[in-house]
Amino acid sequence: MGMVLGLTGGIATGKSTVVSVFRSLNFPIVDADIIAREIVEVGKPALKKVVAVFGSEILNREGALNRKKLGEIIFSDEKKRKKLNEVLSPFLKEAILTEINDKKDQAPLVIVDIPLLYEGGYDVFVDKVAVVYVPEEIQLVRLMKRDNLSEEQAQLRIDSQLPIEEKKQKANIIFDNQNSILETKNNVQKWVTKNIFG
């Protein structure tokens, strides 16, 4: 049975760079963002529940979830964001844990990529937690650039997550992503060589 490594970070800290290294080494990835999209597809019970709480204006003409509209509602109102998390959490947890169980017998290492790992209490379901880290001021600049946001918009998104410094303190493993992508990739590779193949 493989090691289950929870991987998290903050928005725009470079988690996808680290995930790409694990993917290139053919380790199975449980991707919470993909699962979160799948559980709210048309006809799924989670979408019905979200509509029941937030109203049908969050749907587009085809009856699918309008993510932009929902994002506008929840990023400007913390109560509504918490409510959405409460509604989706049981559906998400069930799907993520099922996928972890399916994959952990297939490889020596399974990566569970969850942006809100600590916030959702997923640290209890994994063997170790790795945090992809950059200081908040770098995070802010990268997020503004990446998503074309104002400083205020970017800060709101960063503030919607547990502070990156807090995640860093809780982590078992830290992948520092302040320097070049190549350096980050090398660090991940070294960790795998030492801890999984060592």
Automatic annotation (TrEMBL):
EC no. given is: 2.7.1.24
Q: Which reaction does it catalyse?
A: 3'-dephospho-CoA + ATP = ADP + CoA + H(+)
Keyword field contains Transmembrane helix: no
Query: Sorted alphabetically, which CDD domains does this protein's record hold?
Result: DPCK (cd02022)
Write down the superkingdom of origin: Bacteria
Q: Its annotated pathway?
A: Cofactor biosynthesis; coenzyme A biosynthesis; CoA from (R)-pantothenate: step 5/5
Compartment(s) where it occurs, according to its Swiss-Prot or TrEMBL record: Cytoplasm
- Any Gene Ontology biological process: coenzyme A biosynthetic process
Entry binding sites for ATP: 12-17
Q: What class of enzyme is it?
A: transferase
Q: What is its main location?
A: cytoplasm
Q: Which family does it belong to?
A: Belongs to the CoaE family.
Name of the molecule in the record: Dephospho-CoA kinase
Q: Organism, per UniProt?
A: Enterococcus plantarum
- Tell me the name of the encoding gene: coaE
